[in-house]
Amino acid sequence: MAMNIIEKDFRSDKFQVLWTLLFTLYMVLVTGITIGQQFEDLGNVFPFVDFILFFYVPMMGLWFSRRSFRYLNEDSYTQMLYYYRTLPIPVPVIVYSRLIMGLMAFLFNGLIYYGSIYLISPATRAIMDIPSYLAFVGIWQGIGFLVSGFYIYWEFMVSGKAYFHRALLLILITSIAVVSMSMMGFSLFKFSAESAMRWKLLSPVMWGSLIIGLGTFLLLGRRTLHMLKNKRDLA
Fold first, then answer.
1. Could you say which residues of the chain have pLDDT below 70?
2. pTM of the entire structure?
3. Which of 67, 31, 62 is nearest to 46 (CA)?
4. Are 109 and 28 in contact (CB under 8 A)?
5. Which of 105, 74, 91 is nearest to 9 (CA)?
6. For 158-195, what is each residue's pLDDT tens digit?
7. For the chain, how far is it from start to end, CA to CA, in angstroms?
8. Exposed/middle/buried for 232, CB within 10 Å: 0-12, 13-18, 19+?
């Protein structure tokens, strides 16, 4: 039944794949050159690269649909829950469908974003072979899974305005963390790239990031399910 919800969601908003594709290509244009320059000069730390990746990578778990554009004005995520409750559809099916869509979005956006950067950046290809680059991608996808789990939890558990405020708070915390690490001479981009080049697909950083990130993603999905069943009143 979860796949039926996913199919219906794509049918009801046929342009969400196009909007998602366009936004991802836009991010490639905005960040691709800068990331390529960072690969070319790993000896220096550019906080902007860390910030861009921390900001954008969790968004790879989103499809840019009418619902995601209107969540602030129309509280569209809550309206979706009201709608599914009237059908009725079991709560686990609703949560599972959102988790699956998130993983599909990560695969779709990740292939386009990271693949495009590798193709358009000679500096990236010069310093990293494909196994190393895949390890680098795996590290950041793990980070994306971890943070994206919070976004999904907020989608289901709070109003559109509260979702917006919490997303802003997360960006603020991320910004402070990036600046603090930079002041100490540390860059997660540099650390992840060096780990990927050293260990390739055997990188413990990559596997640790994927396990922790995906584990947190699924645990927050389970927490969302529990809270929807016991705490949020949609009557």
1. 1, 45, 67-74, 231-235
2. 0.90
3. 31
4. no
5. 105
6. 887 888 888 889 888 888 888 888 888 888 899 999 99
7. 22
8. middle
